[in-house]
Design goal:
It comes from Stenotrophomonas chelatiphaga. The protein is mainly β. It has three helices and 22 strands. It has a single domain, classed as Porin (Beta Barrel), CATH 2.40.160.
């Protein structure tokens, strides 16, 4: 299902006529539903300072240590009403897939108590549930991209108040064909003992369990560079897996112009012919709004506001540390001289990543981001008969327009 470039161009052109104070385009009221149109366009550039692996090699190799790509081209229709009904239909013209496409019914008119049917982000991961257009860094943390279950078809129930929430979901495959499969369920609970304007303390706990697609699982991660074609840590295909369970723990503190957050994931794959496979990882990050703005908080998720002075914009500085451990096995010497070591279990590797970045939000529709990523990874290589370090650095830039 390819969306014509002319349609995307027309959508962006229409958005340019939206007054700067508004974040969406009002369409009309049809059948008691107030319909609005939103969009997000992101263009990325990655410059690789490779160490061992060619991070933009393989089928995408262009003979250069750089990649440039339209990262997202999201088009979204939203409706409020009639009554307590809300609906959304989203499509990414770049990735050729559906985004949030669902209907929500607010029980008793309470936005914190609802039933939801369709495709939506599953109740896990603070970073995954946060708005893509306001990501703190160009790439989500490696652990978020690896362990978080994103959009799936299903049904959910949510309930809460201003300072707590509980969400439960049962889900299946993605709406778009040939993408993620595997039925399962998930739940997330949040609690904010402090929830005031400009000051929030948040804790969260989530759990998801789902079947693997065709009994096959592969756990791997890019080095926090979305345009990289190589994964520096990789479990390889495990063809005897039955079910995956992932526990997520999250915390966040907002104090005026400062925000700190972190998440830990522990994932276990049940295997039928081998020992179960367990891997884990975490990230911690901090962000400072130099121009003094703070964040909002609703439904257990932070929200980035507009610049206090749209003309001069909003500046952010941030830093993040990621760690992943995909090793769940041992390496022992081979008793036969000259033969490679014996691997017992899975040695998918370890990866530590530092990311520093700056974001600039101009008015209500434009964002510029620049990140520098420093990677320290180690993985067993059968050809080298030992562990190999690969420590690249990556410069990343993003230009974003949204309405």
């Amino acid at each position: 299902m390819k969306l014509h470039r002319q349609l995307l161009t027309a959508a962006v052109a229409a958005a340019l006529f939206v007054p700067a104070a508004h974040a969406e385009v009002a369409i009309d009221v049809i059948g008691g539903s107030e319909i609005t149109f939103e969009g997000l366009v992101q263009a990325d550039g990655n410059w690789f300072d490779n160490d061992v692996a060619d991070l933009n090699g393989g089928d995408a190799a262009n003979g250069k240590d750089s990649e440039f790509e339209l990262r997202r081209a999201e088009l979204v229709l939203k409706g409020k009403g009639p009554g307590n009904v809300e609906w959304v239909v989203g499509y990414d013209a770049k990735a050729d897939k559906f985004l949030d496409t669902n209907i929500k019914y607010k029980l008793g008119g309470n936005s914190n108590h609802y039933l939801q049917l369709g495709q939506y982000k599953q109740p896990n991961s603070l970073e995954e549930l946060s708005s893509t257009k306001n990501n703190d860094f160009i790439s989500k943390a490696a652990v978020t991209n690896t362990y978080a279950v994103a959009r799936r078809l299903g049904g959910a129930w949510g309930y809460g108040q201003d300072n707590w929430s509980v969400t439960a979901s049962a889900f299946g495959r993605e709406l778009t064909r040939n993408l993620a499969h595997g039925s399962g369920y998930g739940a997330r609970g949040t609690f904010a003992p402090i929830n005031e304007k400009g000051q929030v303390l948040h804790f969260g706990l989530s759990y998801v369990a789902y079947d693997t697609d065709a009994d096959t699982l592969r756990v791997r991660a890019r080095p926090n560079a979305d345009l990289a074609t190589v994964r520096l840590v990789d479990s390889g295909n495990m063809v005897d897996t039955d079910r995956v369970t992932t526990l997520g723990v999250e915390a966040m503190y907002i104090g005026g112009p400062f925000k700190a957050q972190g998440e830990y994931y522990s994932s276990k794959a049940k295997r039928m012919a081998n020992d179960n496979y367990t891997s884990d990882g975490f990230y911690v990050s901090g962000l400072w709004n130099i121009t003094g703005e703070t964040w909002g908080y609703k439904g257990g998720v932070p929200g980035t506001g507009l610049p206090d002075n749209p003309g001069s914009g909003m500046w952010q500085l941030g830093a993040r540390y990621d760690h992943m451990d995909l090793n769940d096995g041992n390496l022992s010497a081979n008793p036969v001289a000259g033969r490679p070591p014996i691997v017992d279990g899975v040695l998918g590797g370890k990866m530590d990543i530092w990311t520093v970045g700056v974001n600039y939000y101009w008015r209500s529709n434009t964002k510029f981001a620049l990140n520098y990523v420093m990677v320290d990874s180690e993985k067993y290589s059968s050809s080298a008969r030992g562990f190999v370090n690969d420590d690249p650095n990556i410069l990343e830039a993003r230009l974003q327009f949204f309405w």
